[in-house]
């Protein structure tokens, strides 16, 4: 039993529509964005879902085919288009999708934004009606066609990373709440490889932005290819090295750039500053959902694999990867598992934390883990990074999405609140699940009258804001 009444709206975004007439997408990340909401009030929950009306979605509906470059698919040309023409439309951004199927965030000024990795795929939505309101236009000269799908958003600001594919590196930018103008903070030059590493997300601490450079790098040639390659728009460059860079938020200066063991991550969990007895910052600790430097998770997430569970244990292993980045000028950083991955069945992705601990020392993370054998993360897990243990929720045949932590209003303790997930049950039905974040036991479930597609990331819009 909850000792308080939840009052607000949970929103979840994700690719939810993979079929256009006779044609079906092949990868999870290609689907057209479906926004789901569950509004909690007076002990009741009311749900709804709707497609985001991106240009890419509307064109696909109108013409019955893919019209923009999605994660893995590109439009089939009606007529021969020269390589030069294709290059021009790619580099102008015209052919890129605006299918904002990845994240949803509530900005400090109250606007709710759906996001993907293309800059043009930033779309303002109405959290009550789920209407597509407008494009979010960045009113600055920073440009960039792609950016991190996960900006860091607080009540006062928004931090983003813009990879530079021409001069391999990353631009770090920040935007004030209420503004549409990103401001240049600094630049990180890549240390290896022909192109920047994929930056789906990145972490920050109170004073620093951490810029990961993983050996899974963007690939201009693959961006152009008509058919998906094994690593889609990316290439694995083990020889190029893996690096973590640390930029001072205030000055834009790089204060550390270290080589680290190879890694594959999409989601950073959090980061914080490690201090000595005198209060001097000695290192940055950055945690992520790390796939043991193995890119096969991308293949795991092909729809064909997800729809065909044979009972074989095919989900690749993942862990909470903890980086330690020293700030004393040492050339190397460390990467180790923060706890025994067996605690969460060697599955680890789709994480959230208490936002009050963003960039600060923290103890708990919530994520999807695994009960094996499985072909997809099938548990919800609460990770205790101090005790190095996990509490797991599991229901046979169910597929839960990201457990999203929502603090109890007035909470002091880090895990005082709930974790909300949308679950697809074994029989295809769907429900919103509310777990007590402390005990990780079920408090309530609200059944949808129909099944729901899998979804990715969430946010919470409190009613009084
Ligand atoms: C449309 C273009 C691109 C799009 C990239 C997108 C849409 C990337 C989305 C990435 C996501 C949703 C990653 C999620 C990872 C989840 C995992 C690993 C879960 C595991 C299991 O629980 C570019 C590729 C940027 C190229 C331009 C065109
Ligand atoms: Fe993500």
UniProtKB/TrEMBL annotation:
Q: Alphabetically list the UniProt keywords.
A: Dioxygenase, Iron, Metal-binding, Oxidoreductase, Transit peptide
Please verify whether the record's keywords include ATP-binding: no
InterPro entries registered for this protein in UniProt: Carotenoid_Oase
Binding positions (Fe cation)? 150, 200, 267, 457
Q: Which cofactor does it need?
A: Fe(2+)
Could you cite one Gene Ontology molecular function of this protein? metal ion binding
Query: To which protein family does this belong?
Result: Belongs to the carotenoid oxygenase family.
What is the protein named? Answer: Uncharacterized protein
UniProt source species: Triticum aestivum
